[in-house]
Design brief:
Strand order of the largest sheet: 2-3-1-4-5
Number of strands: 5
Number of helices: 26
Largest sheet: 5 strands, parallel
Distance between the termini: 61 Å
Length: 501
């Protein structure tokens, strides 16, 4: 194929075939180079960019996939299928308004485009705009969209209206090729709310099985994540920590507060309440610390960093913060990223006076919620497609957290989900004292804060807009039989954090 391209570099299909061959041979970098060169040399052709997007998706490089697809659509703006793909990638990139524009453009180009209507419904649900469902359903009817696809949109609406039995009826008419993962998640949620635990768990298990077959190879990436966690744990020892070169900050930066906790532990509810305080600014699941980690390489290097090197990494962190948010002068910056549970050594090296908030919830409720949630398939979340790997990650994450937090004697305050549900003010007042913040009743009005904050980029986007409810506390008891295989792994943490088993 390389020889064929050398002979006829002007023939686009030959270049595409070479890229496809390289992808099949898992020679990713060269395949990317071939497609990027072709995109440059054939400026009117969208095909190399479409292939480049698909390759970046396979490699779980979503931002680059979106960039490639944006350029493909600029080259072929009249392709309704491309507009739909662009809308999907924009949702993944949390560009919700722009995603809606792409789906509406697809409908204008092809009023009969089923998936454009369906995905616009998904977008309305995800952005908590359920009041727009009736208009979308009427539009779909006028455009003669098949009734089964309309019933999927109706099922989204019925879930919001808590009409769960009717939702199950609607799902029965939805074709198998209409949003199968979301359809199974909806079915599981409906069965769960109606008390049919076995049917619910079956639906969630099938949802996860399908996701395991994603082209981005989630099972391989999950294993790589677990291996990296094991390596980091092996590095953090008392001798290694004692070898650190002492660091005392002498710059103008004020250390952030780090809000951590296992996913589905109530971190979004808690950060929304913190947002309600006028002197707090929350940065929600953004990558400044990840940028530091990329610049650092292995955490083993933390011990070798001198004063200037640590100061440089602090600047990297805050430079990235300033690229992502407009910092309010005088406001307390809260960096909320649940699985920074595993980043204590990096945080402590850069910010030795940093305060941590640990969000806790019963380990069984957490693992159940992780398993039944349709997460974006990043390298951490892919571990939740299987209960055994989810339990392993929970166990090793909290072992690493305990190992690091005790060794480094971090400043820590714990907040429990169950406490927030039972007595919100009683749980929050000690936290505000810990943060040296005056008490503000506005922090309790999380629904108002959630409405004002716009798009919520976590799996709790719908729950955090509702009144606080207790139904999720202790829900795992109904699934005790399904969770039985992982209970031995979780029991030490259940006991340590004072929960009942």
């Amino acid at each position: 194929m390389r020889r064929a391209v050398a002979l006829r570099p002007d023939v686009a299909p030959v270049r595409i075939n070479l890229a496809a061959t390289l992808v099949a041979a898992e020679q990713w970098d060269e395949a990317i180079d071939v497609l990027q060169a072709m995109a440059s040399e054939f400026p009117g052709d969208a095909k190399p960019l479409i292939e480049l997007c698909a390759l970046f998706k396979q490699l779980a490089r979503d931002p680059e996939a979106l960039d490639a697809l944006e350029e493909a659509v600029r080259r072929d703006a009249g392709d309704s299928d491309l507009q739909v793909k662009l809308g999907v990638e924009r949702i993944i990139g949390w560009q919700m308004d722009a995603a809606g524009d792409a789906f509406r453009n697809a409908i204008k180009l092809d009023p009969s485009h089923r998936d454009a209507h369906v995905l616009l419904g998904v977008l309305l649900e995800h952005t908590n705009r359920s009041e727009e469902f009736p208009a979308l359903i009427e539009l779909a009817k006028r455009n003669d969209i098949q009734s089964g696809a309309i019933d999927f949109i109706r099922a989204l609406q019925l879930r919001r209206e808590r009409r769960f039995a009717e939702g199950l009826v609607a799902l029965k008419t939805v074709p198998d090729d209409v949003e199968p993962i979301r359809r199974l998640q909806l079915a599981g949620q409906f069965h769960d709310r109606l008390g049919d635990v076995d049917a619910a768990f079956t639906a969630f298990a099938e949802m996860n099985r399908i996701q395991m077959e994603d082209p981005s190879q989630p099972l391989r990436r999950a294993a790589e994540y677990r291996e990296a966690l094991t390596v980091d744990r092996s590095i953090v020892t008392p001798d290694w920590y004692e070898s650190w070169i002492p660091f005392v900050p002498d710059d103008e930066f004020t250390s952030p507060v780090f809000l951590v906790g296992f996913p589905r532990s109530g971190t979004t509810l808690l950060d929304t309440m913190l947002m309600g305080h006028p002197d707090v600014q929350v940065m929600e699941e953004l990558p400044p610390l990840t940028r530091v980690e990329q610049e650092l390489g292995s955490i083993e290097r933390l011990a070798k960093l001198d004063h200037d090197a640590v100061s440089a990494l602090r600047r990297t962190y805050f430079d990235n913060v300033d690229q992502l948010i407009d910092r309010r002068p005088g406001a307390l910056l809260v960096d909320k990223f649940p699985l920074h549970l595993n980043k204590v050594p990096i945080i402590h090296r850069l910010f030795p006076d940093a305060r941590f908030i640990l969000a806790m919830r019963h380990p069984c409720d957490v693992l159940l919620s992780c398993y039944i949630t349709n997460f974006r398939l990043n390298n951490a979340m892919v571990n939740f497609l299987d209960l055994d790997t989810a339990a392993w990650v929970y166990d090793q994450t909290f072992a690493f957290w305990k190992q690091s937090s005790l060794l480094m004697r971090i400043s820590l305050h714990q907040v429990t989900y169950e406490g927030m549900v039972a007595d919100t003010a009683g749980e929050l007042r000690p936290l505000f004292d810990f943060l040296d913040l005056d008490w503000h009743e506005s922090a309790l009005d999380h629904q108002r804060t959630a409405a004002e904050r716009g798009t919520i980029s976590t799996a709790s986007y719908s729950q955090v807009t509702e009144p606080i409810y207790a139904r999720s506390a202790g829900r795992w008891q109904r699934y005790r039989r399904q969770l039985a295989p992982i209970l031995p792994v979780l029991k030490p943490w259940i006991s340590q954090y004072g929960y009942d088993d």
